[in-house]
Amino acid sequence: MLQEELLISFLKKFDDSPFLVKMNGKKYRIGEGKPVFTVKLHKMIPLTALAASTSIALGEAYMDGVLEIEGDLYEALDHFLGQVGKFSTEAVVLKKLIPESLSKKHQRRDVSSHYDIGNDFYRLWLDETMSYSCGYFRKADDTLHQAQVNKAAYILEKLHLEEGMEILDIGCGWGYLLIEAAQKYKVRGTGITLSHEQCKAFRKRIKAEGLEDVLTVRLMDYRDLPRMKKQFDRVVSVGMLEHVGRKNYRVFMECVNQMLKDQGVCLLHFISALKEYPGDAWIRKYIFPGGVIPSLRETVSHMAEENFHIVDVENLRLHYNQTLLCWLENYREHISEVGEMFDERFVRMWDLYLAACAAVFHNGIVDLHQILATKGVNNTLPVVRWY
After folding, report:
1. Residues with Cβ < 8 Å from 157, sequence gap 6 or more?
2. Largest Cα–Cα distance in the chain?
């Protein structure tokens, strides 16, 4: 069958790691050596779809059960996604399919589509802190919970907090970082988020911890921050820059600048890329609409324009691989409960998302950087890595 032969011919370019394709009772070997995983295709994937976006075509085939992996999905993806540079994309098609959302209205919609799925859903597989960002594994046997506690402590140590300071968290999530800051460092804090679910849950946590006098959370776009006409001693943003959009990076940095006092310290924690690229099409279509991964160099460049002096840069890439593998394990332990909340396509989509993200971090396709900087020159910080 011609279409089948053409499909196998297309797949043969992904031959860095050998794998087996089963289709219509036949077996096809891709690459040299013993296959490290097996792909089972229940029907043809249109070549036009693979050419338009290999990522979307394969992702949708997995979501629909057309494509299955015999064995461990993460292990297969860990071998296969190292070749993501060979994926085909048609820029015109992708631009029409996945426009970059920059308006406040669109970014509220995009954020809500991911983070407002439901707090009960996220509680199934996140740890008790409800931290949905890269953990920090100080020890090889750290649990996910310990790694998230470590991460919050590490960030707060880097910020060099002192009692009585005020801290702003842009994209505060469910609020664990600010709660830790208020309780351990006796600081006051404000968090902002575009997620109704996160805001609601954070307010409950503030009340439960008796921190109403020192912590505030607002449902707010970062671009509205200057209207507060207030400045903070510290500004932190964890996992938020990826939602800003390439054309708005400078605007974001300007807002951080306006909110930070002279000589104030800021920390940006974000998924980053080696170079500027539009991102994975499947992720943008199904997981993070409007999301773009910034490169480290463009981030630093925009910070320089706002007179931010870089104190330190750290890459936590392998910590995110381990974090995602923990999330994936938790997700699979509760997959029947996820199935009670959502349909089978959603269940498979999130399984693929977590496994694929773990694989791309392991392969160095993306990184996780923390940038520590000061607004203007600050000669009062310790001259060694105090943290």
Report:
1. 386, 387
2. 73
Number of helices and strands in the chain (H, E): 16, 11
Beta bridge partners, 324, equal none
Residue 39 DSSP SS3 = strand
Note if 357 is an active site residue.
Answer: yes
**At 69, which amino acid appears?**
I
pLDDT in tens, 205-246: 999 999 999 999 999 999 999 999 999 999 999 999 999 999
The letter for the amino acid at 166 is E
Q: What is the pTM of this model?
A: 0.96
Q: Where are the alpha helices (DSSP H) in the chain?
A: 2-11, 47-52, 54-63, 73-80, 91-97, 104-115, 119-125, 144-158, 176-185, 196-208, 249-259, 281-282, 296-305, 317-333, 335-341, 344-362
Mode of pairing for the β-strands spanning 308-315 and 367-375: antiparallel
Reference 190, options 232, 148, 221; nearest CA is 232
> For the residues 61-74, what does the mean pLDDT come to?
97
| Contact call for residues 305 and 250 (beta carbons, < 8 A) | yes
Q: What is the average pLDDT score of the chain?
A: 95
* Lowest pLDDT segment from 64-78, 217-231, 273-287: 273-287
Residues with Cβ within 8 Å of 314's Cβ and at least 6 positions away in sequence, in order, are 369, 370
Instruction: Tell me how far apart the alpha carbons of residues 330 and 322 are, in angstroms, rounded to a whole number.
Output: 12
Find where tokens 């219509």 sit. 24
Helix axes 73-80, 344-362, angle to 10 degrees: 50
Q: Helices 296-305 and 249-259, interaxial angle, to 10°?
A: 50
Question: In whole angstroms, what separates CA 105 from the centre of its chain?
Answer: 21
Q: What is the DSSP letter of 368?
A: E
Residues 6+ apart with CB under 8 A from 274: 295, 296, 367
73, 354 contact by CB (below 8 A): no
- Integer angstrom CA distances of residue 248 from 91, 94, 100, 232: 21, 20, 11, 22
Residue 110 near residue 287, CB atoms below 8 Å: no
